Amino acid sequence: MARPRIKDVARHAGVSEKTVSNVINDYAHVSDRTRQVVREAIEHLGYRVNLAGRHLRRGRTGIIALVVPELDIPYFAELARHVVRAAEERSLTVLIHQSGADRAHELAALAGFGSTFVDGIILSPLALTADDLRDRAGFPPTVLLGELLEEGADHVAIDNERAAREATRHLIGLGRRTILAVGGRDDAGLGTAQARTRGYRAALAEAGIAHDPAALLPVGSFRMPDGARAVARALSGGARPDALLCLNDQLALGALRALHEHGVRVPEDVAVIGFDDVEGGRFSVPTLTTVAPDKAAVARVAVQLLQHRIEEATAPDGAESEAQAPQDLVVDHRLVLRESTEGPGRH
């Protein structure tokens, strides 16, 4: 049986091919009744839009790339699911690439993998520098997530400094005074860890608590073993914290294990807060209080912004350009209270 074409849909619905095209492209001036009739015809005939042809006519492939450091980090896996969903709503296909936090891989992604099959990039960088981002002439449009390396680049994230300040204030409000920052960094920079550390320190200063450089527990990476090692090392070295602010949930889950192995009760002796609200934190013992970014909003805003940049980049010669300056867009977050700070039955 021949594949149905747009003219078949038009004949079945009793409208013109142009009207069918308007419905497919979701143009606003089509009446609700006509839109319904056309959609019923599309469903009845099993018509499928030729997305490849549509994109190629516009000088695009309809493919975007999502580049994350590691897919087995739960936050990035959950984020990827949201990006794929947001892209599908815009008839885009997502190529997912794991950079391994390697600069060469991130540079290759920034350059569109040396090909023209990717219309744009959503990139969560860990190894790139600001200099890598300053000269992107000829590269595909790019939206950064997480790390803000260059203030002249499009960027989508939560307000990490404010979120860490709010989380630390919560710990202080519980009467905790000796708060260690697991994964904290004292160097200047625009990265996520630096922003969260600044928020932590700002909350301490507001409460009149002196900052102790030893309260920052450095980690090699942001995985559970790193959090466990950092906390175990601190406890073995004589640290006696009453709270931990962990800069992601993986570190926090590792910290919970180290505290358990050292006979430290959570939250009675030490309250623990993480970041990211990954699924594992909802099933840990105790369940994990965390800063929850709106991951669906991060994905939706990033895809929307990237599509806008792609349209700017592929506009026909002579078309009016309304190119906007690079945008730093902030999405919502919230502090989710669970047993690791509140105790059983209070979350």
Q: Brief description of this entry?
A:
The chain is an alpha/beta fold.
* Number of E-type strands: 12
- Give the fraction of residues assigned to helices: 40-55%
Sheet-strand content, in percent, reads: 5-15%
Individual helix count: 13
Give the integer mean of the pLDDT values: 88
Label the structural class: alpha/beta
Uncertain spans: none
Tell me, what's the shape? elongated
Major beta sheet, specifics? 6 strands, parallel
Question: Which strand order does the major sheet show?
Answer: 2-1-3-4-5-11
The value of Rg in angstroms is: 24 Å
Could you state the order of secondary-structure elements as H and E?
HHHHEHEHEHEEHEHEHEHEEHEEH
Distance between the termini: 58 Å
Task: Describe the SSE topology.
Elements: H1 6-13, H2 17-24, H3 32-45, H4 51-57, E1 63-68, H5 74-88, E2 93-98, H6 103-110, E3 120-123, H7 130-134, E4 142-145, E5 155-158, H8 160-173, E6 179-182, H9 192-206, E7 216-217, H10 224-236, E8 243-246, H11 249-261, E9 271-275, E10 289-293, H12 295-313, E11 328-331, E12 333-336, H13 339-342
Parallel strand pairs: 1-2, 1-3, 3-4, 4-5, 5-11, 6-7, 6-8, 8-9, 9-10
Antiparallel strand pairs: 10-12
